[in-house]
């Protein structure tokens, strides 16, 4: 009686040449354009979400004003710029420094948002340090195990 397992097939496609450290199928201008788009789109989207939330917290249940909108756009631009800068320079860093940079960016961002919610500076500092340390530990684990 024959088994029901699938017999491995052979592909008729020729193998694509891959560069050093690049899996097959991920080379060429099309892949490079996708990566470049992601390097810009992800920080912009993160910045817009962060800026919107910062403006929401700063408004304190009042009416939306131009000052709130400007504050949100300023926060969005700064956060998106820092995310873009970290994304562009992360390959030049060793995993420990890269993890510390991600932890610092996340901790400062969360601490700032926590301070906008009318909490004390000590509360915002403790929350920022805790979130930053957690992010640094998580990203160090990810970077260390994948390199």
Strand content: under 5%
Shape type: flat
Rounded to an integer in angstroms, the radius of gyration calculated over CA atoms is: 22 Å
The tally of strands reads 0
Average pLDDT score: 83
- Kindly, what is the distance between the CA atoms of the first and last residues, rounded to a whole number of angstroms? 46 Å
Number of domain modules: 2
Helix content: over 70%
Series of secondary-structure elements, N-terminal to C-terminal: HHHH
Segments where pLDDT lies below 50 for 5+ residues? none
Main sheet specs: none
Counted by DSSP, the helix tally is: 4
Give the helix/strand class.
mainly alpha
In short:
This is Integral membrane protein. This protein is mainly alpha-helical and 147 residues long.
How would you portray this structure in words?
With 147 residues, this protein is mostly helical. It folds into two domains: 30-92, no CATH class; 93-147, no CATH class. The protein contains four helices and no strands. The chain crosses the membrane at residues 40-58, 64-87, 99-117, 123-144. Residues 1-32 are annotated as: Disordered. Residues 12-27 have a biased composition (Low complexity).
